[in-house]
Amino acid sequence: MNNEKLQSAVELREGQVEKDASSEKSAEVIEAEILQTSEKEAGDFINIGEAEMLRAEQIASAEGLEIDGSDKIELQALSREAEMARREFADEIGNSKNAKQENKSTQENIKIKNICSGCGREGREGHNFCEECGKKMESLKTCSGCGKENKMGNNFCEDCGNKFEKNESRDWGTKDADKQSIEAQSEINIIKPSNLLKERKIINIEGLSEKELEDQKRTVEDTILRNNAFVVHVITEHEKARHNDNSNVSSETTYEDDIDIFLSLEPAISASSVTPGKKATLWPGASGFLLGGGYIGEASTSDSGTRPHGIKSRGGENSSIEKIDKVVGRNDRSSEQDYERFGYNMYNEFVVNDSEVAGFFQHAEQDEDGRFWALALSLKDLSIGAERDKFYKEALNKNVSNYKKRFAVASERGIPLYIMTPNRLVYECLAVNDDGTVEVGKQLTPEEVAKGRAGLPADKRKEIGERLLNRKIFRDEKIQKEAEEIIENL
Amino acid sequence: MDKYQPAWKKFQTKMDILRKKQKEILERIFDKLDQQKLEAIRKKFQK
């Protein structure tokens, strides 16, 4: 219902109020009608969001596509916002009623008059329209200091500046209490810097054979330097995408197992590249690894659905160095045209053999004030709503808690922590606050990844690997044996 | 009616903003699905 419709519906009721001497009941009916309208409006909004999301999920499921998790989170946050707006509206309607009652009983120093805005006639309390000329009545309050009649909204007298006493409403008290409790929880959770990764060996390319030179160019570090791009592997927590048929391990594996497999076995995995400053889609997931070592095999400008052949081998034949650069750097005309057309780089896929981790990242987004928010800006909406709404507060706490847990898993294993923005800038993560904001340190460049530490030392990999082998999570015996051999040879 | 107008206006403004955001996100979701479809077709042609 639009504003005009509401106006006419309410004005119709107002007419009834005038005819009714005991107007209190009719006023309640009006309020109920307005509240019902707001409920319907917020309800319709939520229903549209859910119905469209369901439609998108049905399309995605039927055609083997993926919905971006951050979009889904944002959409859900909007529904919560609509519900909060409705509640706020209901509160305000309720408060204007309460305020009216309070004015009658407690503000003895303020005399309230109903004056006709047309003829100036003083009307009876509770009448909204002048009994004489039919124009709207205006409420005025009389200053106890000088007697000047002021509009109801004035906090100070227009003539003498005397302050009108005003009772604090119940809601303000509640808001302050909630705010204090949120502030009390907002202690900064400093993340202890942790870096157990190996120092990089400096390779002297002088005297290398042609084949050795090509192998060197195939390394993740050389590829990063040539193309100024991060090489990333996203850890998906999405039920359908997680350990699908393309995976070596069962769907029973935990998030911690995923990290342990990666760190200890350094498997052949599928990866994507992102360029700092350019938006790009990635495999769905809140977190992932920045890769700093390994060898690139098959490369494709899109999702090539590479399959593993054991732990240490994946996909088809190695692509040429030119093809790798075209994929990783997106340095061809077609990629540039796609970026101009869509405004973001599309997901590419290439195999990284003997993958070495250089860092662990989670998504974060910067607001217009320069603050970083965990996951996406939708978390800021949750954070704002959490001051007033239990539902928002619970959702915020859950998201922040999961965010901290993911970082804790990586930090415990000695991996440096970072956040990555939608335009693929990477910053050191220093702390995650309970309100959903993230404290960041210096920005990381692809060059620093390529020249910095990567991969855990053998003894640490062995320790993690042995723990992993006991979990028997590999799909078949052959893979379990291969894992045992890798760990044994460390 | 007057006393409800500011709250109603505020509610309407908020809902208008939310509807605009919702439309943008839904468009983005379907655009991304279209892109994925396009990619799949492109991949088929490449093979």
Compact description:
The complex is a heterodimer of chains A (490) and B (47). Chain A has 14 helices and 13 strands. With 490 residues, chain A is α+β, with helices and mostly antiparallel strands.
- Quaternary form: heterodimer
Largest sheet of chain A: 9 strands, mixed
Helical region count of chain A? Answer: 14
> Helix/strand/pairing class of chain A, anyone?
alpha+beta
Structural commentary:
The complex is a heterodimer of chains A (490) and B (47). Chain A has 490 residues and is an alpha+beta fold. Chain A is 44% helix and 17% strand. Chain A contains 14 helices and 13 strands. In chain A, strands 5, 6, 7, 8, 9, 10, 11, 12 and 13 form a nine-stranded mixed sheet that branches. In chain A, a hairpin with a 5-residue loop joins strand 11 (417-420) and strand 12. Chain A is elongated and about 105 Å long. With 47 residues, chain B is mainly alpha-helical. Chain B is built from one helix and no strands. Chain B has one helix at 5-46. Chain B starts with a helix and ends with a helix. Chain A binds chain B through residues 3, 6-7, 10-11, 14, 30-31, 34, 38, 41-42, 45, 48-49, 52-53, 56, 59-60, 63-68, 71-72, 74-75, 78, 81-82, 85-86, 88-89, 92-93, 96, 128, 136, 281, 300, 302-304, 342, 346-347, and chain B through 1-4, 7-12, 14-15, 18-19, 21-22, 25-26, 28-33, 35-37, 39-40, 42-43.
Describe the secondary structure blueprint for this structure.
The complex is a heterodimer of chains A (490) and B (47).
Chain A lengths: L2 H17 L4 H40 L5 H37 L5 E6 L5 E2 L13 E6 L6 E3 L18 H16 L3 E2 L19 H8 L2 H8 L2 E6 L19 H11 L3 E6 L12 E14 L20 H9 L3 H10 L6 E18 L5 E3 L3 H9 L3 H23 L4 E4 L5 E7 L4 E8 L1 H6 L6 H12 L7 H12 L2
Parallel strand pairs in A: 9-11
Antiparallel strand pairs in A: 1-2, 1-3, 3-4, 5-12, 6-7, 6-8, 7-9, 8-9, 9-10, 10-13, 11-12, 12-13
Helix pairs in contact in A: 1-2, 2-3, 3-10, 6-8, 7-13, 10-11, 13-14
Chain B lengths: L4 H42 L1
